[in-house]
Every structure is written in C-alpha cells, then in structure tokens.
Write a structure and sequence with these properties.
This protein has 244 residues and is α+β, with helices and mostly antiparallel strands. The protein has two domains: 105 residues, no CATH class; 130 residues, no CATH class. It contains two helices and 18 strands. The strands form six sheets. Strands 5, 6, 7, 8, 9, 10 and 14 form a seven-stranded antiparallel sheet that branches. A three-stranded antiparallel sheet has the order 11-12-13, with no helix packed on it. A two-stranded antiparallel sheet has the order 1-2. It starts with a helix and ends with a helix.
Length: 244
C-alpha cells in the first residue's frame, strides 16, 4: 500500500481532533471565564531505511488563550471578575484543589459557597455563610455577611476567597472543565484583587471559531482526497501488472 495513505490518514486524524477542540470552544462561547483552547500541529519525521522524505503530523493542545474576555457588570453581589492571571480555587470530591475563572458564585441550601457545583475554597478551606444572610465580597476577596434583620453594624467577616496566580503554574485543562496544577496545592496570592459585581465573559470569538471549523473541514476533505487518489493509483498499477 502506498505510504502516502498513512501520511494523509495521520493528517486527517489531526484535523478531526482539531475540529473537536474548535467545537468545544464554540460550545463555551457564553460560559463565564472560559478560555479558548489552542490547537497546534507538529511534524514528526518518519524514521527508517532510505531518505527521510515523509513526515507524519501530530496534534496537541499545549496551552490556552490567556487573553481576557470582556468584563460585564452584573450588579450581583456574588459575581466576581478576576484579574489577568487570577484563578479561584475549588475543592474536588477527593479533597484536592482545582482552579477556574468562572466567577458566578452560588450559595447552596446549607450556606456553602459553590462555583459550578464545587465548594469554593477560602483561606481556611471551603467557605460557608449563615442561611438567609446577605453576602458581600470585597475587592481583596474578603466575605462579609449580614444576618436577616440585623443592623448594618453587625456585619461580620467570615473568610477570604483564595485567589491563585496562574502565571507561575503549569495549569492543564481536565475533562471536568476545571484546570489542574502540578503536585501540591498552589499558594494564595494576597496581592490580587477581584472586581465584585462583574463577570468575565468567554474569550472565544464565534466568528474566528466558525472560520477555523470551515478551514479544518476543508483540510480533512483534502486529506481524504489524497487517500482516494492513492487508492485509485494502486488499483491502476495492479491492473497494469495483471496485463503484463
């Protein structure tokens, strides 16, 4: 079989994987704090006897787009927008930490602060507030609560949101949609400030995403055409050999 088929097959498979990444980016175009995944191709020479004239292609998603999305002021007390390299820490079911830029914080029935269903981590672990209390988040991440019917002077601080500087970490996107660091727990960066009452939108460009999808689809079709042409050439060669 012509070796060109294997070369084209590798390129077609890479195009399929790139299409999956692009589709995931477009699906999260309205997800707060989502950062687009970037797809990269890399040529891998085919080692073996003879002259190295062929190369396979392999794909990877080594990093994400670090540019910030637009900041939208919502006026909601539990919404926070993060600085350029800031990440919120959340606790996983197994007790480990993961990181997200989604700032739409919720309070469950038990008073636990959560982001995307995961417990929000503070300076002393997961943060909880008294039920039916009014929650205020300061620019430094401090959380203050005022009980129902209490005087404004009775406002008390219950904790501080843990903000991690992701610039110094090798964060990788997991299958759960959260980012995970290396070994150990990342320390809090006390110099980072939040923007209360605002949310960062996704940095995905729907227009660019659609253009990438079309370009990738055409690339896949081109590779399939190469496979078809190589197959036709092989059939023609077999017919010539039969005549001979």
């Amino acid at each position: 079989m012509d070796r060109a088929i294997y070369t084209a097959m590798g390129a077609a498979n890479a195009a399929l994987n790139r299409q999956a990444v692009t589709s995931n980016n477009l699906a999260n175009a309205s997800t707060p704090g989502f950062r687009a995944q970037l797809m990269a191709y890399r040529a891998v020479p085919v080692n073996g006897p003879g002259v190295e004239t062929r190369a396979h292609v392999t794909e990877s998603t080594p990093y994400h787009d670090i540019s910030m999305g637009a900041i939208n002021h919502t006026g909601r007390d539990l919404d926070v927008a993060l600085p350029q390299n800031g990440w919120l820490a959340v606790e996983m079911a197994d007790g480990t930490e993961a990181y997200t830029r989604a700032g739409n914080i919720e309070v469950d029935a038990d008073g636990q602060l959560r982001v995307r269903g995961y417990a929000l981590v503070g300076d002393g672990g997961p943060i909880a507030v008294p039920p039916q209390s009014e929650v205020t988040i300061g620019p430094d991440g401090t959380i203050s609560v005022l009980g129902a019917g209490d005087e404004p002077s009775a406002m008390a601080q219950v904790g501080r949101i843990k903000i991690v500087n992701g610039e110094a970490m090798a964060l990788q996107l997991g299958d759960d949609g959260l980012y995970h660091g290396g070994e150990g727990v990342a320390p809090a960066d006390l110099d980072m400030k939040l923007m209360p009452g605002a949310l960062e939108s996704s940095n995905v460009s729907p227009v660019k995403g659609m253009v990438d999808m079309i370009a990738t689809a055409r690339s896949f079709e081109m590779q399939m055409k190469v496979i078809s042409t190589a197959d036709e050439n092989a059939r023609s060669a077999n017919q010539l050999l039969t005549i001979a």
